[in-house]
Every structure is written in C-alpha cells, then in structure tokens.
Please model this.
Amino acid sequence: MSEQALVQIRNLSKTIGNKRIIKNLNLDLYKGQITGFLGPNGAGKTTTIRMMVGLMKPTEGDVIIDGQSVTNHFEDSIEKVGVIVENPELYKYMSGYKNLLHFSRMHKGIPKKRIDEVVQQVGMKNRINEKVGSYSLGMRQRLGLAQALLHNPKFLILDEPTNGLDPAGIREFRLYLQKIARENGVAVFVSSHLLSEIELLCDRIAIIQNGELIDIKNVKELQLSRFLFKVEPLAEAEEILAGIGFPVSRHDDGLIVETEAEHVPGAVKILVNANISIFAVQPFKATLEDQFLEMTGGGDIAQAHTK
Amino acid sequence: MLKLIQNEWMKLWSRKSSWIMLILLVLILFGTAAITKWVNTAMPVENPETWQQVETNEMLYNQSMLENPELDQVQRDYFEGEIAISEHRLENDLPPYEYTSMQQGVIESHFMISIVTLFTVIVAGGIVAAEFSQGTIKMLLTRPVKRWKILTSKYLAAMIYAVLLTIVLFISTAMAGLIFFGIGEGTFLTWNGSEVAEGSFWLEGLKMLALSFAGVWIIGTFAFMLGTVFRSSSLAIGLSIFLMFTGIQLVFLLADYEIVKYYLFTHTDLTQYYTGFLPVEGITMTMSVIVLMVYFVIFMAVSYLTFGKRDVTA
Model:
C-alpha cells in the first residue's frame, strides 16, 4: 500500500519487572482497512492496545496516530481515536444518555445533536434514558460502541468487542464496522479470540505471540482455492494426481489438491479412468483457526506475564 | 476544565449516597435541636442561675486561668478578652444570647463540623477509587484530556461538595434553631484587643465555620490521596476516619515532644485559637496555616504523581 499509514506503531516495547512483554512491535494501519489482532492468551494483545491508547506507557518506542505521537502529544493524538477496551464499563448508576453526555464533554465541540445521531445509529433510542445498570450485556456493547463513535474518530480500536453479543448482534456489528471503514475511511483495529469472526470481519490480520509480531497476512491470501477429494484407495490416487503435476497433500481421510476450479473435472476423469472410487469432491477452505494454530504452534498459551 | 467538573458533579449526584449524606446531615441537625428542646422542656433546671451569676463565675474562672505563669500568649489574649467582655456585660446590663436560641446555635454551628468531615472523606476517598473498581477508568483516561486535568476536576468536585455540606450545615442549624428555639434575647460582643464592641452572630458563626473548614479540607485531601494511591475507597475512607479519631488523641501523647508542632492533627482545628484551649504550647495561627499548606502540597504531589504515571491494568 503506497499511501501513508494512519497509525504507525514503531519499535513498541514494554518491560514489566524484568520481563519483556512486548518486543519491538512494528505495525502500520491504514485508512478504510480493518486489521485483526490475533494471538493466544497472554501474547500481549491487551498490553499493546493499552499502550496505543495511553493507558500504559511504552518502555520503548511510540505509537503515531495521524502524525501525532501518543506519548508526546496525548490530547491531539487521542482526539482521533475511538476506544472500546474489553467490556465497555459504563457508569451503571446513570442513564445511557448521561453516560454519552459525560463522554461528549471530554471532547471538543460535540453538539447534543450528535449524541442523538449516534444513539439512533446503534439502535438504542428506546432505552437510552434508562439506567445502564438495567441494560443487558448486548445493550452495553451498543452503548460502548456509541461512546467510541461520538467524536467521529479516524481510528477505532476494539479489544474483544463482540464478547457477549448474540449471533445476530455480532453480524450487525460486523456489517456496521465494515460500513464505517468503507464509507468514512476509518481505520479499525480489532483484537479478538473469535477467529471465525475475525476472518469474516477483517481485511488483514496481524498475529502476535509471546510479545512478538509473527505474521501479517491479507485475509484473501489465506483463502487459496483448494479442493478436498474423498477417494479410495488413497495412496494410489495421490500417486496419480501428483504424477500429473497437482500439488497434493493428505488431510484426514482425503486428499487436498491446490488447483483452480477449471482443472477439477479433468482430474476427476483421470481418477475415474484409473478405477478410483470417488465419494466426494468439494471446495476446501482451511479455516483461519487451522492456520492460526499452525502459525502459533498449537496455540500454546504463552507464559502468563504476571508473576 | 469546567466541563470536567460538571461531569464529576453529575456523577456525584447520580449516586444515591451523596443524597443520603446530605439528607442525613440535615436530619442530624434538626434531630439534635429537637432533642435539646425536648430535654429542656421535660427536665427544666430548678432555680436556674441568672445570667449575671453565670457571667461572674466565668469571669472568676478566666481570672484564675490568667494566674498560670506558663500560659501561652494566644491563650492569655483570649482570657483577657473574655474577662473584658464579661465586665462589659455586667456593667452595661448586656446579657449574652440564651443557651437555647437560634443565635447561639449559629455561633456554635461549627461544633457539628465533624459530620461534614466524615461525609467529605467518604466522597473524596471514593471519587477516584470508584473509577478503578468499576473499571470506568479505562473509558475516562482514553479521552483527549490529560490525566492531571481529570484528577484536578475530581478533587475540585469533592471539595465543592464539602463546601456545600458546610453551607447546608450552617443554614440547617439556623433553621432548626428558629423552629425549635426561636429568636432569643441578648447581644454578641467581641474583643479586638483594646475594646469591646457589639458583633454579628452570623459573622461569628461563619468565621468559626470557615476556620473549622480547614480540617475538613486537609482530611478530605488526605482521603483523596489515599483513594488515588490505593485505588480502594474502603481503605481510603476507613484509614482516614480512623486517623481522624486517633490522630487527635496522639496530639496529647506527643504534646511534650518537639515533633508535635509538625504533626498534622495539632493544626487541623483552627478554632483552637479562639476557644482558649490550645493542646500544644508555642503554636500560632500562622504556623498552623503553614504546616497545613505543607501537608496539602505533599498530599497533592503524591496524588498527581501516582495518578499521572500509573499503568492502568484494571
């Protein structure tokens, strides 16, 4: 991508005690793009996000948001960021509206009209004057999103945002994020454990393990065209397919063939002619989960960093 | 900054406890006045002394106090003033306000200031700590507002609440006095060092209340610091209240040592310079004010440093 990154994470490191929790993290985030942030528990996702929003101070390195450093120009940089860190903890003893009013006062120039607008957007209009204590988790998530969007941020950071949403809520949330990324050019950074969710939501995925960024991938790249052949006898079929130049690998009780769809009928014909029994041929999509587990070596939970 | 204080003020009044404390304060004041009234009507003193007799006795007592050669200058001035006032009253037939009168209640309204201190400690100790325990601190600190500004707005909101309670204390005392005792006969006299003059009981009441507010302010600041450092409102409130009661006892234990002059609780009650009772020798109003300011600066510095630097992991 040739355009200037909206958010630049530069050599970000965090040491607590004598343990390096985050090691030299570098990552660029771009306008209109949704980047997922994946990693096993304790890999440093939350710590990274907290340093990006100024809740924790980096030991080394910096986060630059739209040209302003979070460390040196906190107010100017954070003005552009909307944040949901884990479960949105709101003031339970106040109404949803008062919560939004409270946060709107902490930004420059948010008119009351904007609050109503955001309330409308997240579909909370009917219950906004009730106390947050009476809300369900899903409603709190919506209100959490509303407070993050109040000031029209250029950059949205979400830590485990779909926690507690029902499937319909998750879907709605996903479509909404994709819409604001596409239409308003907002850069979105989402950390999650829900791998399938990240796969549907994100354009790009950054994977962190033990405080190090181990891979950045475009989601499209991950979805190569592959087919699963369920055939018998397996060894003979593998020999034939490999013999005519298909990249073949075994998967459970079938074969995975990397190829374009147009070559499939030809391959089937050859197998039939060789008296191989074919039970099924189907497109095979390795889930992100498989790849994630592959990359992080079985998803071992990294050593907890707190004592 | 005004908007931040407005926020803190809104949160403060959205909690039931702030209202309960305010109402409780009013109830306690009216209750005390009602009980006093009831005791006086149910059990009237037999053969009550005339005000002249009371005044004469007081004058004799004050004169005997003056004979003590080790008396502090502050106390000497006080007793001399009291004697001059008593003489003036007896000569000119000017009785003081009756014990049960609205006016006397106003003059003595600062007697109840410890309730205000208690409630202020509860608010000041919890105002930062509660954000941590509810987890809302994450939402609060990820705004384009520097941390010191947030902390300042919280401190000011707690102090405004303290001032409000003090004003409510004053007004409620006057109202309860009016309802239960009515306006009494008498005059209030002051001594300016050379002559006796008539003074306003309102001003006297306000002056004493303002002086005792110093204690509310510094103990409230202490609770605020504890709440900020330990992020636990119960610890901050508990420890502050504990010190509020034991701290003053320690003044008497330490009274013979030099260190007592730099000890916070020797100076928390500034009305001591106007009541003739000084727990420690050789302290002056100026010294008390300076000591309180030094403690204030330390408490605030500790609060700002810990709050500004802390990594939020809650």
